[in-house]
């Protein structure tokens, strides 16, 4: 059920400004959507409180989108692919949002989606919304904001939300943990690439796409065959799905519909038996625990008694006069003190 009227959300204890924000998001306005996401990304305490209240009201309107994670090494063709794929979905009357988790953005100040020339055609479409990675904070913090931004996009009526990440470090695991389906974009002739990709990423992949197949179709087919063989030796992420390996040329718009059909099949296979719902429930709980762990860690480090004792205790562990176990025990116990 959609909330369309001002009356229908008056029950919620929101200041008028935020009520307008909620209504604007639900009405599908892109400018209001951007404003809501900016509020979510803000690190100011009062903004965070407002953002939490806004999200709470929006929550019943979330959950309807297909959440797609996409990874690939720099140069694999992610932005070219997302543009072609996004335009393909728009042609079918779907609304597409693209978000990013970019672990490098906090270091360099840049962002994988910050460059205006990327996805230029998709950017100009009314039914598309593209948001660069939040540029501050740890991977966990950036991911948290992106997950919340995804929920806001869903409330705004986007049918598909794509979360892009660079295939380095831990960010793929984080993105796979917030999406329904995870797509790995591969290059066909990057040497012996089965050796090069981490087993961990292969285990996350629900669909593998060899992009740039136009450059050397034979090489792409060979690489795809090797990948199929390798995947058959791994345990699939879900017992209901065997990850297909496809070829595409994002540059020439080839193979794009095949990828979309594979994603639809995945959704069908996973929805029929409740596996997708189960996956989302698990993700939500994992997320809650992640936030609790982060919160506890933060409180521990900020606790005055811990702060005071930490350097000296760490020193005794480093020089071998206290065991790590005893030191951890003592420091954790300090948290029970009020000051
Ligand atoms: P990203 O770093 O993964 O986002 O990769 P980009 O989308 O920026 O693509 C890197 C380069 O590869 C660009 O010059 C693209 O034009 C090119 N490219 C992307 N997809 C294809 C493809 O399917 N075929 C060919 N020949 N080039 C491609």
Main β sheet profile: 7 strands, parallel
- Give start-end ranges of low-pLDDT stretches: 1-7, 106-110
Distance between the termini: 49 Å
Gyration radius, rounded? 22 Å
Number of strands: 7
Mean pLDDT: 87
In helices, the fraction of residues equals: 40-55%
Key attributes of the depicted protein:
339 residues, alpha/beta, Single alpha-helices involved in coiled-coils or other helix-helix interfaces, Rossmann fold, Helix Hairpins, 3 domains, 7-stranded parallel sheet, 15 helices, 7 strands, binds guanosine-5'-diphosphate
What this model shows, in words?
By secondary structure, the chain is of the alpha/beta class. It folds into 3 domains: 1-61, Single alpha-helices involved in coiled-coils or other helix-helix interfaces (Up-down Bundle), CATH 1.20.5; 63-273, 3-Layer(aba) Sandwich (Rossmann fold), CATH 3.40.50; 282-338, Helix Hairpins. The protein is 53% helix and 11% strand. The protein is built from 15 helices and 7 strands. A 7-stranded parallel sheet has the order 3-2-4-1-5-6-7, sandwiched between helices. The longest helix is centred in the C-terminal third of the chain and has 28 residues, at 275-302. It is globular. The model is unreliable at 1-7 and 106-110 (pLDDT under 50). Guanosine-5'-diphosphate binds next to α4.
């Amino acid at each position: 059920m959609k909330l369309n009227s001002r009356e229908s959300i008056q029950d919620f204890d929101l200041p008028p400004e935020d009520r307008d924000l909620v209504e604007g998001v639900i009405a599908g306005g892109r400018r209001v959507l951007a404003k809501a996401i900016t509020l979510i990304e803000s690190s100011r305490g009062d903004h965070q409180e407002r953002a939490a209240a806004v999200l709470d009201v929006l929550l019943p309107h979330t959950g309807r989108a297909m959440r797609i994670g996409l990874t690939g090494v720099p140069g694999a063709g992610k932005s070219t692919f997302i543009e072609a794929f996004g335009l393909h979905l728009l042609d079918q009357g779907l609304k597409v949002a693209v978000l990013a988790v970019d672990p490098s953005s906090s270091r360099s100040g840049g962002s994988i989606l910050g460059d205006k020339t990327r996805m230029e055609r998709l950017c100009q479409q009314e039914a598309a919304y593209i948001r660069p990675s939040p540029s501050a904070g740890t991977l966990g913090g950036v991911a948290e904001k992106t997950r919340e931004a995804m929920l806001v996009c869903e409330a705004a009526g986007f049918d598909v939300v794509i979360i892009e990440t660079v295939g380095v470090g831990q960010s793929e695991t984080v993105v796979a943990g917030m999406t329904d389906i995870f797509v790995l974009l591969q290059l066909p002739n990057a040497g012996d690439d089965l050796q090069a990709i981490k087993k961990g990423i292969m285990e996350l992949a629900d669909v593998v796409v060899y992009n740039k197949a136009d450059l050397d179709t034979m090489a792409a087919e060979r690489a795809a065959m090797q990948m199929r063989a390798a995947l058959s030796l791994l345990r699939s992420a879900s017992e209901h799905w065997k990850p297909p390996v496809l070829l595409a040329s994002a540059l020439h718009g080839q193979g794009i519909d095949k990828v979309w059909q594979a994603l639809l099949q995945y959704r069908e296979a996973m929805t029929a038996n409740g596996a997708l719902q189960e996956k989302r429930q698990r993700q939500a709980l994992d997320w809650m625990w992640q936030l609790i762990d982060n919160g506890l860690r933060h409180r521990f480090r900020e606790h005055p008694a811990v702060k005071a004792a930490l350097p000296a205790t760490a020193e005794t562990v480093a020089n071998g006069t206290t065991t790590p176990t005893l030191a951890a025990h003592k420091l954790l116990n300090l948290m029970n003190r009020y000051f």
